[in-house]
Fold this sequence. Notes:
Layout: H1 3-15, H2 20-46, H3 55-83, H4 85-103, H5 109-136, H6 143-172, H7 175-182, H8 185-195, H9 200-204, H10 211-214, H11 221-251, H12 256-284, H13 286-303, H14 311-338, H15 344-371, H16 375-395
Helix pairs in contact: 2-3, 2-5, 2-6, 2-8, 3-4, 3-5, 3-15, 4-5, 4-7, 4-8, 5-6, 5-15, 6-7, 6-12, 6-14, 11-12, 11-14, 11-15, 11-16, 12-13, 12-14, 13-14, 13-16, 14-15, 15-16
Amino acid sequence: xxxxxxxxxxxxGTRNAGWVLPLCWAAVTLEGAxxxxxxxxxxxxxxxxxxxxxxxxxxxxxxxxxxxVMVGALSVGPLTDLIGRRRGMLITVVAFSLLTLLCAVAPDxxxxxxxxxxxxxxxxxVLPVALALVNEYAKGGxxxxxxxxxxxxxxxxxxxxxxxxxxxxxxxxxxxxxxxxALPSLVLVPLLLRFLxxxxxxxxxxxxxxxxxTLFQPGYRRATLAFWLASIMGLLLxxxxxxxxxxxxxxxxxxxxxxxxxxxxxxxxxxxxxxxxGWVGDRIGLRPATMLWFVGAMVFLALLTVKVxxxxxxxxxxxxxxFVFSAQVLVYAYIGQRYPTWAxxxxxxxxxxxxxxxxxxxxxxxxxxxxxxxxxxxxxxxFAAVAAVAALAVFLxxxxxxx
Length: 403
């Protein structure tokens, strides 16, 4: 690329910098909607007479989809460090939208499961690409605020899909859900083409460094392993609590409606926590903020073993939500700040991908505790211990590149 062409492209990126966060936010919102839709349609799938689906088969489909997300996070991050993040974002959004649309016409559960796996690959790539771009274009270097704002989109997508399912599925069936989730790309893709700038680093520098090798070079090796451990623990908390909190609260003696209401409170706390966590991270530093947030998660998860009535339990769950969800988001923000630009997508993708071990393990651990009849109080003690391990992992990340 010529010097004049490079300067022109960088200038265009600077002019369109204000579009980065809203466009990436929209992409992550669609990702959140697509990853949650299986849970929304699963009750209908289990009662769909043409397929004769059993809960065990449904669990396999859900796990296969998460494995696809893991593959995508591990592979798409390094790929976009090589081909460009704008191109990577376009490819992932187009690919998961088309594969999601095909789910609407799947003739049998095996084809449906295969499509969910394939859709999971570009879905897993959306987040590391979006995080890398948002980190680079964060206003005033406020990486924490930019990252947490981006991740709110995931929860918005999850909430909108749940509400859409309430309206659509009883009247028009589960297949239409996948059509409706694919349609927003008809608007988003043209906007990405027109306004999303490329990484200025990719246009201007393009070093020959291997991004995967960078993760294990002196100065980054210990940080990489520590971030992987923190992400496994963080996502174990997120998926374990989101899957089993209502049942654990029932085991504690609360009613079913109370358990479901507390799950909503937990996720409201997540949104509140993200707004606060980014602000704190930008002021005291992402490393201490991330450790503080995991310690807060540990404390408030342990306090859920204390049975209180009425508003008290809602406040406890809200505070747990404030720290649990945004702690993992701060991990992503810290990764984006800790690695050089040419390896940022790879670092974020590897942490997100390896972290899926926790996403898969969380529901399994919670289910095992419930089956053993010890989910309350030991489930919350176990989750508190997981948060403590995550805090220790972040502490083990060297504060500087020298190791």
